């Protein structure tokens, strides 16, 4: 079974930041599968106009994931992503790798 990597998305996320790394991590020859997480399961629109329906919300995400990627975007400086904090705290407390480009 492949290990899940969660990519946090939100309205206005910087889609280009996740494009390269996700294509590498999600390859058939890897042990990983990339899934998206957001504050809720409503569709999110990236800066580039991509409309994505998240796989998980902060309420129903799996507790056993391999990595959390926090993608950049204006919502961070506007304090609109605070609901992701419990997921980040879970990752830190459980020694799950996290990465951000904030």
UniProtKB/TrEMBL annotation:
Keywords associated with the record: Glycosidase, Hydrolase, Protease
GO BP of this protein: proteolysis
GO molecular function: hydrolase activity, acting on glycosyl bonds; peptidase activity
Domain DJ-1/PfpI: 3-94
Lineage top rank: taxon: Bacteria
Enzyme class: hydrolase
EC number: 3.2.-.-
SUPFAM superfamilies: Class I glutamine amidotransferase-like
Protein name: Putative protease YdeA
Protein species of origin: Clostridium puniceum
